[in-house]
Amino acid sequence: MMNKLHNGVWFIALAFALSGCETITDMTKGKDNATPPTELTEIQPTISVTSKWSKNVGKGGNVNFVNLKPMIADGQIFVASRDGTVMALDADSGSIIWEVNTETRLGGGPGVGEALVLLGSSEGEIIALSITDGKEVWRSRVTSEVLSVPSAAAGVVIARAIDGRMFGLSSLDGKRLWTYDRSVPTLTLRGSSSPVIAGGLVVYGSDSGKLSALSLKEGLPLWEKSVAFPSGRSELDRIVDIDGNPIIVNGVVYAASYQGSIVALELETAKTIWSKDLSTSSDFSVDRLNLYVTDADGNVWALDRRSGASLWKQDKLQFRSVTGPVVVDKYIVVSDFEGYQHWLSTDDGHIVARTQTDSAGVSSTPITDGNAIYSYSKGGELTATRAN
Q: What are 66-100's pLDDT values in tens digits?
């Protein structure tokens, strides 16, 4: 959302902080026109949610609006903190398998692939650790800060920097194989859509509202499709970033933009299957039939995957900085700025349970292994919960 703006607005906000001004309201002598978060109302829970375990990792993933969120692979959870700590935990018990300090300010990751745990730094480095013991395998320099999650397949590590450049690196030693340059608008949200690898393609969303596909081995552009078109008089009105990660299922790509649309495209041809006006900068989730998304105001939607038709809308969490949803069994789960975890029925969106994981708040979309939900708070607390 707007608190993630960088470039011009990020500089202005920083200038306000350094000048000692308390709020923009104080400067303008006006009233704060920010919409207050919706107050939570009492619910009658129909399922019981309990905490399995909790582990403090360090500084959480929302410091300076970086993109640090856990990753699950082979029964393990890999998680990183802003101050450089990286851990591998047993997903069932939360016990630490290995822990290392990269001594680097991390900005994106971890990603997992090619027996590596991959991270991006604010200093413009891609760091590859051994998935077995966390030992550093290589580091490779890119052109600017990395806020997206690196990924890897078929001997190639894919990394995206915030200056719009995409890099293909060797998974063996980090040497640069190719670079693809994409210009960035003057004003964007602070964040980056993470590239997704599928069928020899690299699919990613850009800050200009376009979804693109490159060849994995050579970095050659294959197709490009506009998900949103900048409009309006001001630079703020014209922001159309794709910050949520695309999802690819059965040859269909789903993607969404801020102040734009959510779309379904054919992976091979980029032909539009359907498009729906809906603004979001969050990740979203799919199950066998539906797509679930949190819009820019905090409404949670269920859409038909085949047509994009709206099935239901949950509006009782508006303006609570709600994360993107994750699906587990018959429920979808979102977290909010106060650290409350809300469990919704996939049938009609009503809230069936609520629990608080960390009062520091949660800003990154929870993840699941199909059994438990894992939430990573701003305070660095990684918590596993499950429905009984």
A: 889 999 999 999 999 999 999 999 999 999 999 99
347-359 per-residue burial string, b: 16 or more CB within 10 A, e: under 16: eebebbbebebbe
Contacts of 39 by beta carbon, 8 Å cutoff, 6+ apart: none
Q: Which residue is it, tokens 């995957």?
A: 305
91: buried, middle or exposed (CB in 10 Å: 19+, 13-18, 0-12)?
buried
Taking the C-alpha atoms of residue 23 and residue 35, their distance in angstroms, rounded to an integer, is 16
Residues 1-26 as b/e (b if ≥16 CB within 10 A, e otherwise) read beebbbbebbeeeeeeeeeeeeeeee
What is the domain partition of the chain in residue ranges? 35-387
pLDDT digits (tens, 9 = 90+) for 220-265: 999 998 876 555 565 554 454 677 789 999 999 999 888 778 899 9
C-alpha dihedral (261, 267, 268, 270), degrees to nearest 10: 0
Sign of the torsion angle spanned by Cα atoms 309, 255, 257, 210: negative
- The domain over range 35-387 is classified in CATH as 2.60.40.10: no
Cα 20 to Cα 27, 29, 64, 324, 346: the distances in Å are 11, 16, 19, 34, 47
Q: How far apart are CA 86 and CA 98, in angstroms?
A: 8
